[in-house]
Amino acid sequence: PAPPALLPYVPRVPPAALPGKLTATTFALERPCCVFDRHANASDAVWLVVAFANASAAFRNPPSRADVPLYEQLPTACSYMTLETAAATYACSAASPAVLRVGGDTVCGGQGGRDPCNGPLPSPGPYRVKFLVMGCHGPKAETRWSDPILLRRGTGGTAVPP
């Protein structure tokens, strides 16, 4: 299959001071609105790839949904995929929240399930993230990797205003 289209979009942490924007186990990302409209159709899914910054270059897009690296594999594979969302959610016409919360699902892990999980991040990172459009025949488009995202230690889950 052809390699996925590389989109010019770079995921980033929102500049606004959101409560709990960066904690010891989670961070927020700007929602990529209108980014995938020309590259995805109604049956496609958009995934968020999370990798340790030093492992992002080694990440290989999975050929199918069955090969998606799961949250539980992060310590050994140094990456996982989460936030599987219908491509339409990111369409220009979609009304949805301006930010995505990464690592916010505390009931993840240890369930032995095969479902992708948006579990708390196990270390401060740094991490890099990208969005990947997956169709029924594999990856169709991807964004660039983000700049490194370093989580805050010892904040107790609250962001301190500047």
UniProtKB/TrEMBL annotation:
It comes from the Eukaryota. GO terms for cellular component: membrane. This is UPK3B protein. It comes from Ciccaba nigrolineata. The lineage of its organism: Eukaryota, Metazoa, Chordata, Craniata, Vertebrata.
